[in-house]
Amino acid sequence: MKKIFLFFCCIIQLIASKAQWDTVSPLFQINASFFAFRDDLSFGYAYKQSTPLASLYQTHDGGKTWKFKRYFSTNTSGENLKMRGMKIMENGNLLMLENTKICLLDTASLVLDTIYKINENNFQPVNEAFRSAHMHFINKDTGVVLAHNIFRTINGGATWDRVSNVFAQFHSNFHFVDNKNVFFTGLTENETYKLFYSADGGMTWDTIGSQLIGIRGLQFVSVDTGFYGSMDSGCIYKTTNRGQTWEKWYCLNDGKTPAPITSIAFVTNKIGWITIKDRLTPFKTVDGGKTFFSQELPKPTPTFLSDVKIIAPNLMFLTGSLLYRSTNQGGSPLLSVQENEFARSEEIGSVVYPNPTNSSFKIKLESTSTKATVEVFDLTGRCVITNQPFLPNQDIDISYLQSGTYLVKIGGTGNFESRLLVKE
Fold it and tell me: CA–CA separation, 288 vs 303, rounded Å?
């Protein structure tokens, strides 16, 4: 019983915490396009794409503070220079991916050199308007670039070779589930936008399912289960068969005009975020996308939000007119609960039902003689039902509460239990 009490205290302490996202210092607009960090997550870079000058920033404290390093011209000798990714190399220099080439930045002199010309090694010419590139490193030596074809390095980025003749005129959402299973979305040769899949790290590819329309922010949480956001309806779609079919899974209903999803990101198969155009808070799920709740951000209020960038499970950034940082999965109050489920007390033995519910719920106890009280908390830690005495077969009304996930605390004589409840 002591363990149960301590465990519940930890849950309540986490729930009560308001530390969700913190603004970085100084307060200025980074709206970073991408980041690169060393394995210890203390030292890293942020790159902000803009016109006519892009910017590179550096941090030595895990992204709490940032210092400007240099500008990059986005219109050099008539060429539109657009960086798409970067990686810190073993010697400290910065490997940088551009739409048409792979570059190396000497971090001492800040001189940028081209080491591989992608556009000269493509399997076939690429329409300039469609040029794009994405990079992922499997380990310190092996990296993969998708730039209409697949390019690969096995020596940390020093040299590159084209290894696959898969061709997509336009592509996005390049995503590794693990070292072998890879997805991206792109235009096929007959101009249909489809899901591409590789089971061998990008060496060979197949297209899956029917044509996709208006997709934004594809992410798979396992080889078979994935999500994407709609640019049209503001809804989330889910697949459980590796993209063969998709079902509408969640639509935000906050009383405002539906707006496009601008990004989607999951850090576990349960915990993730979406950002939505014209909404000035991120929306978080702790139940695999069944429900999302708005997360308050510290002042000042941003003018827009762009994306959630997950560097590691304990380091992520929210980009927009301001840059936000989290080291606890966006103030994930129920992370330990989600991973380990709720503690169960033999003395109480509670069941909450129906769950999910849209109006009310009941609590069943193993012993009808148990004297207990009921409290309900939302995921910010706010108590929405306080110390209500437990009565057998009583309907507890929550029809007035917003849809989302709640924590139900059942307290007996010297012991506690807690259950997740979903309000539809």
Answer: 28
For 362, the enclosing helix (H) or strand (E) is strand 360-365
In degrees and rounded to multiples of 5, residue 266 shows phi and psi of -120, 135
Give the C-alpha separation, 214 to 277, whole Å: 14
How many other CB atoms are there within 10 angstroms of residue 178's CB atom? Answer: 11
Rg (CA), the chain: 24
Residues contacting residue 111 through CB under 8 Å, at least 6 positions apart: 105
Local structure of residue 129 (DSSP, 8 states)? G
Is the pTM of the predicted complex or chain greater than 0.85?
A: no
Contact 173, 215 (CB under 8 A): yes
Element (H, E) at 51: none
Residue (of 89, 114, 77, 111) closest to 99 by Cα position = 114
HEC string of 53-101 equals EEEEEEECCCCCECEEEEEEECCECCECCCEEEEEECCCCCEEEEECCE
Residues 6+ apart with CB under 8 A from 362: 352, 353, 354, 393, 394, 395, 396
Give pLDDT, residue 12. 41
Question: In 3D, which of 423, 350, 411, 421 has the Cα closest to residue 5?
Answer: 411
* Beta-carbon count within 10 A of 157 CB: 25
Question: For residue 311, what pLDDT is reported?
Answer: 92
d(Cα 75, Cα 84) in Å, to the nearest integer? 15
Q: How far is the C-alpha of 265 from the C-alpha of 271, rounded, in Å? A: 9
Q: Hey, what are 372's tokens?
A: 């207990």
pLDDT value at position 129?
Answer: 52
Burial code of 114-153, b = ≥16 C-beta within 10 A, e = fewer? eebebbeebeeebeeeebbbbbbbbeeebbbbbbbbbbbb
Contact 275, 262 (CB under 8 A): yes
DSSP-assigned states of every residue in 247-303: EEEEE--SSS----EEEEEESSSS-EEEEETT-SS-EEESSTTS--EE---PSSPPS
Q: Which of 419, 280, 272, 255 shows the shortest CA–CA distance to 353?
A: 419
- In this prediction, residue 377 has a pLDDT band, given cuts at 50, 70 and 90, of confident
> Is residue 81 very low, low, confident or very high in pLDDT (cuts 50, 70, 90)?
low
CB environment 378-413: b (16+ within 10 A), e (fewer): bbbbeeebeeeebeeeeebebeeeebbbbbbbbbbe
336 phi and psi angles, rounded to 5 deg? -65, -30
| Cβ within 8 Å of residue 374, ≥6 positions away | 363, 385, 387, 388, 389, 390, 396, 408, 409, 410, 411
